[in-house]
């Protein structure tokens, strides 16, 4: 077996070192991610340039690249907070967030890769305690869920705007009250509904009674007007008209005019 030339060993070593350097210098950033460059012999974290985008990159082997997910992410939180009257309420909420892309270097420098635990969770918990503490359990259970959702979002967003994190939405998925409080609220709501139904029936009955009274009054007024308009002369004329019609009937045989007490005709017939 022939011996390798002496020059071959340095070449092999150089090739091995080159492979190692290339392996350490090559960085692949996947879709939905971005990289923050740390220059070991420079100024540290690069904050004055955009982060490294998706794809293959070559960096100096003595530098480092920190990978961040820049897509929208979800944080699910179960929080126990106090209502305005001191009762413990459990809130199940989700927060949709993402790092501010152009500020990724500042985010890495100030908070690091565990920024979720350092700033987002404390912010949403603080906002939830502040907002829920303004409402009673009855309000949280019935009509104020959308309101507290909007208020928690607004307060959390205000905190995170200074932390290089973008908050997209806060969703309150559930509000859980102690069973005794929940049952008392449901009982109260049922009673209020029954009371409203009873009041509606009373109002309906009163309107029906008023309608009957108005109709009766109208008929009475009509009769009064009619009675006032019926003079003796009008009655006599009506009687004459009726007598003429009866005289034309085939059943009429004898007609005696002017025999009644009031001077009205008296009709006599044999049938």
UniProtKB/TrEMBL annotation:
Signal peptide annotation? none
This protein's membrane topology, according to the annotation, is: Single-pass membrane protein
The uppermost taxa in this organism's lineage are:
Bacteria, Pseudomonadati, Bacteroidota, Flavobacteriia, Flavobacteriales
Keyword Transmembrane helix appears in the UniProt entry: yes
Q: What Gene Ontology terms for biological process does this UniProt record contain?
A: proteolysis
InterPro entries, per database record: Band_7, Band_7/SPFH_dom_sf, Prohibitin
Q: Does the keyword Protein transport apply?
A: no
Q: Which UniProt keywords apply?
A: Hydrolase, Membrane, Protease, Transmembrane, Transmembrane helix
Annotated GO molecular function terms are: peptidase activity
Annotated membrane-spanning segments are 7-27
One Pfam family matching this protein:
Band_7
* GO CC annotation: membrane
The protein's name: Regulator of protease activity HflC (Stomatin/prohibitin superfamily)
